[in-house]
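Encode chain A's predicted structure.
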Amino acid sequence: MTEPVIRPGSHARLRPIGTLLALAASALMLVGCSAPTSNAPHDAGNGGAVKPTASPSKPAAIDVSKIDACEILPQSDAETLIGSALTDPLTASNSDVASCTYPGDPNGPTAQVEIYIGAGAKQQLAIDRDKLQHAFTQPSGVGDEAWAEDDMIWARTGTTWVSIRVVSLNDASTFAQPLQDAMKAVIGRLS
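Encoded structure for chain A:
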């Protein structure tokens, strides 16, 4: 914005534009703050208006370092999901992710079920969707948001992400609904 030009000998005083805008804004605020007048009797009430007592609360973030992912997806649920026996789980947890892996029986068919809870699950989704550009579907009714691809599903509850993956030689389409069912149960346990 350029400064106004004042010609020599002129007695007019020009105010900077910023000052004029500030004065105009102040005048508008004063008008908006004036108390409304009402012709209603003093005992008429507020017409049913409700005064909010507090802003809506957001669910607290889940501390994944304190979660046992194997309790969130028990072995019996993992075996139902994959359709075969699994061995004792391997578990890990840190500030970013809680995980549980159920390996398949070494004498049985190829089978493994994994669950990840926390930022690590969200990172998996970002890699598969944004970097590798895998094909995804978006299941409805699973958490606050859900995404699925062959042999894997992600869902979000509040700000916490969860992923469940199956490793199998069976056709991936046979796991689409079982993955959704398992994720619904997991989200229910986290909520």
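The first helix runs from residue 17 to 33.
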